[in-house]
Amino acid sequence: MLARDESILYAALTYRDRYTDGDYMPDQTNVYDGGCGCGEVRFRMESRPLIVHCCHCSWCQRQNGSAFAVNALIEADRVQLLQGNVVDIEVPSPSGANQRISRCPSCQVAVWSYYLVMFGGIGELVRFIRVGALDDPSRLPPDVHIFTASKQPWVTLPPDIPAEEEYYVTEKTWSADSLARRAVLLSSVQR
Ligand SMILES: [Zn+2]
Ligand SMILES: [Zn+2]
Fold it and tell me: Which residues are in the CB-under-5-Å shell of ion ligand 2?
């Protein structure tokens, strides 16, 4: 038990060491841990995501072998790799630019991805966390359903959650807090 306590203490110290310069502080009440299928890769989202997408596009259906994909968008520097490493593969995406998917090298389960041309040049700075790879996916239900024009006919959408036939207007869909976080990302690439 002592070793475990020491490792928790060490993690706390590492947190503090990383953020003592007035930078963003992780929100300890909104931490989300996850991992791959074999346990080799473990990661942590250090705050609430910007938004959670449920995407019904045919690309997500094919790439997941399922009816939709659920992704939590979050700043890349708020995702901590706790254990293991990921390997990136690139797959085509509807924009014509590739989506880079990060997978466990052993079990090949995807833990997150990047859309390289999204968001006015900040695609590299935003990770699409696979919500199903979190230890408790129920903590992050979708904020919006997108590309519902191609959703499977047997999927019934909840009436109280926004749904778009294709994509949405970010300024109208993201919370004020998330838009402020996006502004920080945009300013970092427009310098
Ligand atoms: Zn694995
Ligand atoms: Zn999609």
Answer: 55, 57, 60
